[in-house]
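Appendix B: complex inputs.
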Amino acid sequence: MTEHATHLEYYRQMQQIRRFEEEAARAYAQGKIGGFLHLYIGQEAIAAATHAALQKDDYVITTYRDHGLALARGMSARSAMAELYGKVTGCSKGLGGSMHFFDVANNMLGGYGIVGGHLPIAAGTAFASKYRGDGRVTFCFFGEGAASIGDAHEAMCLAGLWQLPIVFICENNEYSMGTPLERTLKVPDVTARAAGYGMASDRFFAEHVMQIRDRLAEAVKRARENSEPTLIEIRTYRFRGHSMSDPGKYRTAAEVDAKKQQDPLLKSRTELLAAGLEQQLAALDASVEEEISDAIRFAEESPEPGPELLEATTYKGEFAR
Ligand SMILES: Cc1ncc(C[n+]2csc(CCOP(=O)(O)OP(=O)(O)O)c2C)c(N)n1
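Resulting structure:
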């Protein structure tokens, strides 16, 4: 594949996530989606780069801000949107909602609402891979607000001690809800901790989808070939509030506008336009619009889960798919 064709593919992925979430936000405002809704808008390049850096059977585990990574791993927009709508056709049969996306077929193992609580689970999947010798790599995402949670420390201690094939990725979007990072971290460099865990580390700003892919690929190689863990901190920014109920009063419009100028999705679009790929971009944009409209239609027309799911999902563990 040429460099342009690859870039176009990543662009489509980022655009799909952006448009999916913009329409989800609209449906939420219309009262069609309940519960929480944490948008990933501004951070899409990390999801697209993740998928590019990983193989199909590698594991991804993340926080409640999970739509982008799920879509990038291959979850259909239909399944994702139906989950937001609480419909039985959703990835978690409409019982989980926005924070609890799960997709066994694509090795996307959640979607967790407890800050930092999923890091030990990720260490567990990486331990299983090492034990089985299956060559899989686990990617575990969390925010800088989770970096000081006890579970995060325990998971990283064990990953370093046992040299697990895992990459811990702190998506530092500068705020934990409304709290800026200088009020949650005495040492703002999260990767300074890697030495204490006996791990390699990397730290960079999310500037371009290709750059992120290449930096992630270095850590994947370390994990896959040598079973060595890595702690990565990616500086990024969310353009929307923490969740839909966040009025965002803790930051100025000027700050958000300045960050939007550095939007990796916008950067890719500008570059692809400069390369003369206007027609290809228009075709991709149109196909994304069609996909998202179809997902909304599908979600709206799907039935809600019924009481027959109660037993199966509570007692028998037949829920996996
Ligand atoms: C153990 C725990 N404490 C508090 C909360 C409430 N809470 C939800 S999100 C959040 C902020 C987390 O920020 P960060 O880790 O930086 O991730 P981001 O939302 O920025 O992606 C908090 C405190 C929670 N869900 N779990």
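The longest strand covers residues 166-172.
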